[in-house]
Amino acid sequence: MRDDDLLLFKPHAPKRRRANGWTPEVQRAFIGSLARCGVVTAAARSVGRTAHSAYGLRDKPGAEGFADAWELAIQIGWDAARGALFSAVLDPERVPVFHRGCIVGWQERPNQRLMIAALRAITAVPPVSKRREPPIRFVRAEPVPPPEPPAEPRIRCL
Fold this sequence. Notes:
The chain is mainly alpha-helical. Helix content is 43%, strand content 9%.
């Protein structure tokens, strides 16, 4: 899936239509918002849903197109955030110069905190969405009987 095809995914079709459900239009709006910001919670809020329900939709069977678009949108969002960060690092910060309580000029200097954040962002790995597999159902087995107590040691007389 390419960046151009981000919103051309096959949305998950709900079994019944709900007023606050994940309609195909809401799914596309969510993916577009996720591509702009890269944060699931903010993207879900922008379409009036919760992040919990978004993760639930992504993990449903039949929502593979939505999940693939989600992963691509996360990558696009992270790339956009990194680009904005690096452009902010390259622009110097204007700091006022004070003399006796009055601003007498301005000094341009690099923002050290942004530089540190940019260095961390270079090495940061974007969150990889791990699609959860359905939980494994365990069957209760018969209880294991407790082990037999050890036999009394025999004392041998010579």
